[in-house]
Amino acid sequence: MSSQSPRRVIPIKLEPPSSLRPDERSAVLEACARLKELPGALLPILHAVQESLSFVPKDAIPLIARELNLSVAEVHGVVSFYHYFRQTRPGRHVLHLCRAEACQAVGAQALEAHAKATLKIDFHGTTADGAISLEPVYCLGNCALGPSVMVDEQLQGRVTAQRFDALVTQMRGRS
Amino acid sequence: MKIFVPCDAAALGVGAEETAEAIAAEAKRRGIDITLIRNGSRGLLWLEPLVEVDVAGTRVAYGPVQAQDVPGLFDAGFTSGKQHPLSHGATEEIPYFKRQARLTFARVGLTDPRSLSDYGEHGGYRGLKAALAMSPADIVASVTASGLRGRGGAAFPAGIKWKTVLGAQAAQKYVVCNADEGDSGTFSDRMLMEGDPFVLIEGMTIAGLATGATRGYIYLRWEYPQAKAALEAAIGAAYAANYLGENILGSALRFDLEVRMGAGAYICGEETSLLESLEGKRGQVRFKPPLPALEGLFGKPTVINNVITYASVHIILDRGAEYYQHFGMGRSRGTLPMQLAGNIKYGGLVEIAFGMTLRELMYDFGGGTLSGRPIRAVQVGGPLGAYLPESQFDTPLDYEAFAAVKGMLGHGGIVVFDDSVDMAAQARYAMEFCAIESCGKCTPCRIGSTRGVEVIDRLVAGENAAKQETVLRDLCETLTYGSLCALGGLTPYPVLSALNHFAEDFVKPMRARAPG
Description:
CATH superfamily of the largest domain in chain B: NADH-ubiquinone oxidoreductase 51kDa subunit
Oligomer: heterodimer
Number of helices of chain A: 7
Structural class of chain B: alpha/beta
Largest sheet of chain B: 5 strands, mixed
Helix content of chain B: 40-55%
Distance between the termini of chain A: 64 Å
Number of domains of chain B: 4
Number of strands of chain A: 4
CATH superfamily of the largest domain in chain A: Glutaredoxin
Mean pLDDT of chain B: 96
Strand order of the largest sheet of chain A: 2-1-3-4
Order of helices and strands of chain A: HHHHEHHEEEH
Largest interface: A-B, 43 and 62 residues
Radius of gyration of chain B: 24 Å
Strand content of chain B: 5-15%
Largest sheet of chain A: 4 strands, mixed
Helix content of chain A: 40-55%
Shape of chain B: globular
Strand order of the largest sheet of chain B: 2-1-3-4-5
Shape of chain A: elongated
């Protein structure tokens, strides 16, 4: 063993450049550490990240790819394939409005028009006050009591324009 | 005294939580001692929140009960089953309920879905105990003899699938439950998982025993958070009582089970794309063969069935293949939980033997439309099912009878539309839905669906209509025969049925139309 110049250590796992906040970064790493040994771990990890951060930030993708030894393209491909995963920060509440046939049969299209007009946003948009994001969904399994919406994780049935407005007022009132 | 208020998502969506809180608070205020049980839904969904009171062993129904009705119910003496404008008498004597054959849904709404002992007292785990005394080949033979066909929609004989997995040699095999109930108009899987989760666990355990699989996954859609909570609680309880894990009930059987969440992709209800998704990939359809029964999850032999299929298995093992087989007609044996949805007066779950006509179901059970207008069209079998006109309402509920009218029974969803429906808009929506949900693997589905929307737009705008219709029919033929899976292959069903039976809606360019 020679005792001349100190050995240079080349890090094999480069930390990808990232604009994640420290708390976001640690949430992503925590989810990876906790779940990466599961067979087929990517979806559970993405769910965990979205649950803690309310979305999957763009810069979380290279980090997850590194932790799972996948390519960035593979992880991006999965995130963008599934409608539920979002890459932009939502409002404080997410309102999913059902667009499927059973709800159409009882006026979902009129409710959709009402929602877009009163919230002044289209699907995938967030209201100016940052309170509500509006998303389409294809069936909430409440097909006998439509039109249906889901506010965060709470299903609501028989949603008239009036009930919709009451839900919006409630969401705006809550933090 | 026992009072039941459902914790089913549909009931919660119309105020069941507030009703339950009001009952608890009012009972406390009046000094009445009650036990509040949060059951599943009885399936009489137009009466939700449906509150039941146990009066000397008979369940008496009141509904729909909103929180503000609760003081009045106490005043009227509902705790001893007294009359009130919202009372319906004994739940099981309500004709809608009484006329059903509740096999798979025998316990849903009756028991406490969180209670393993309640499950056991109502016949639970008798199927598994019977199965433990049988050889795997005998279990498979029993399931085959019962005539049980996959309830997810494709109606493939369950026993044949199981036999293939049993015969496959591998160090690891899997049991997968398709709980990605994405069809509009269907909610039976959700109701079952929320109202009787143990029956699914038991059915999957039996499938493991029958095929030599030791690990199971329930692939559940994210839209069902209540079902997730119910399943996870039930799995925890089953592990604690040694109904899951190692040496189940003192036998050599091992079976582990977990819930995995989908992420909003309709295509993941297709079995091979579901397996891709479980493996952590994009939910893209696989080529078949190889069959999942030989090379399924992680390339290993895999039984994959729908929730209702697994939930029917314990009946066959407990009461015998002949018992199950004597329900139904032709090659459609047993019962099918039908779901009455859309513009329907009495929407809900109707479990009946195969053979009743669509008309009986929609009028005798459903009571016609909610709006009071005539029924014009009905879509059976989800977004890929045909729109049937009045002239086909006498079709019996049977897989082959529906195939004969170019329709499909699918997962048993019935979506009713009144005469205000614009069938050209529904046809356009079917193409739009296919475009949004296509996995992108095969060209007819990925591109044909977008072209389909455009062609329908030109057709209804009257731009060279005869030519557009020819192009649309040609495109549908390409989708039918050229697509890799049922999404592209069946999208022509709603499109062509709308065009064939409701042609007048496509030739009125002056009529105002709501886009998609």
